Structures are given as structure tokens and as C-alpha cells.
């Protein structure tokens, strides 16, 4: 008997969903990628740029999923979320925020393809079209795993 409930992003493993949604964003070709993506580090705590050439799509998928689950997220929260531990040699490590420019460009790119919109209380929220797309991808991931 078929399931009587619909599958949402909350029901899917985050890694599987992000990988599938990043592949969808790359395949669709709508997401505008800045020219400097292959040159930058993702934060001051990093020594090198990302090895994955599609890291911007993965970051966009991660941001879309995060805002789907928690509306009203802004650039500062995303900087904190994607930050990391700074290696300070023999001194104790500290948490360092990630790049704000990358967070802004990801949000702007997702707004251009109508996945996100500005929230009246600050930050961003998912649009109706964006929620439908994310739920459709989640359902396809769920069917592939079943």
C-alpha cells in the first residue's frame, strides 16, 4: 500500500538532500555563479579554497535547506553556521565566522531564481515555489532510497 503522507525536507537525510538539490541546481543552469568562485577561500579559518568545483551549488543547497527549516535567517546566522575552527598554533582554537560575501551572493542567487524572498521581520524566508521544489527533490530522494 502506498504511503498516505507526503515527504518533506525534514524527513530526508541532510547530506543526501543537499547532494541531490545541488545536482538539480547545476543541471537547471538557472543559478548565477560569481566569476570568483574558483579563487576564494570560504572563510578566514581555511588555508585553501574548496577542492570541489561545484562547492557553490552545495552551499546554495545547504542554505536553501537551512532556511526551509528555520525562516528569518540572515547573513550573520549563515556566517556563523558555515564558520569553523581557526588553527592558532599552540594557542587554543576559536570559532571563526565564514565569509559574508559568499553568504550574501548565495542568498542573492537563490532570490533571483525565486527560491527565497526577504522576510518582513528580517532575514530571508522560503517562497511557495521554492518550498514546492525542495519538497519535490526530497520526495525523489526518498523514492530513490526506498
Task: Provide an overview of this structure.
With 146 residues, the protein is mainly α. It has a single domain, classed as Winged helix-like DNA-binding domain superfamily/Winged helix DNA-binding domain (Arc Repressor Mutant, subunit A, Orthogonal Bundle), CATH 1.10.10.10. It contains five helices and four strands. The strands form two sheets. A two-stranded antiparallel ribbon has the order 1-2. A two-stranded antiparallel sheet has the order 3-4. Helix 1 crosses helix 5. The longest helix is centred in the last third of the chain and has 18 residues. The chain starts with 13 loop residues before the first helix and ends with a helix. Belongs to the eukaryotic ribosomal protein eS19 family. One of its GO terms (molecular function) is structural constituent of ribosome. Pfam families: Ribosomal_S19e. This is 40S ribosomal protein S19. Keywords: Ribonucleoprotein, Ribosomal protein.
Widest sheet, order of strands: 1-2
Helicity range: 40-55%
The radius of gyration over CA amounts to 16 Å
Label the overall shape.
globular
Give me the secondary-structure category.
mainly alpha
The separation of the N and C termini measures 14 Å
The low-confidence parts are none
Strand tally, please? 4
Largest sheet: 2 strands, antiparallel
**Helix and strand succession?**
HHHEEHEEH
State the CATH superfamily name.
Winged helix-like DNA-binding domain superfamily/Winged helix DNA-binding domain
- CATH top level class name: Mainly Alpha
Number of helices: 5
Q: In CATH terms, what is the architecture? A: Orthogonal Bundle
Beta-strand fraction estimate: 5-15%
As for the number of domains, it is 1
GO cellular component, one term: cytosolic small ribosomal subunit
Keywords: Ribonucleoprotein, Ribosomal protein
Protein name: 40S ribosomal protein S19
Pfam family, one: Ribosomal_S19e
Amino acid at each position: 500500500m502506498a504511503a498516505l503522507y507526503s515527504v518533506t525536507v525534514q524527513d530526508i537525510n541532510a547530506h543526501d538532500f543537499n547532494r541531490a538539490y545541488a545536482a538539480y541546481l547545476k543541471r537547471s543552469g538557472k543559478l548565477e555563479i560569481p566569476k570568483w568562485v574558483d579563487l576564494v577561500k570560504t572563510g578566514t579559518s581555511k588555508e585553501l579554497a574548496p577542492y570541489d568545483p561545484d562547492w557553490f551549488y552545495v552551499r546554495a543547497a545547504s542554505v536553501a535547506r537551512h532556511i526551509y527549516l528555520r525562516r528569518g535567517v540572515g547573513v550573520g546566522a549563515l556566517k556563523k553556521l558555515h564558520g569553523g575552527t581557526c588553527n592558532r598554533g599552540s594557542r587554543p582554537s576559536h570559532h571563526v565566522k565564514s565569509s559574508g560575501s559568499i553568504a550574501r551572493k548565495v542568498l542573492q542567487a537563490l532570490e533571483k531564481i525565486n527560491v527565497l524572498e526577504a522576510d518582513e521581520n528580517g532575514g530571508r524566508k522560503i517562497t511557495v515555489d521554492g518550498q514546492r521544489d525542495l519538497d519535490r527533490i526530497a520526495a525523489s530522494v526518498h523514492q530513490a532510497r526506498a
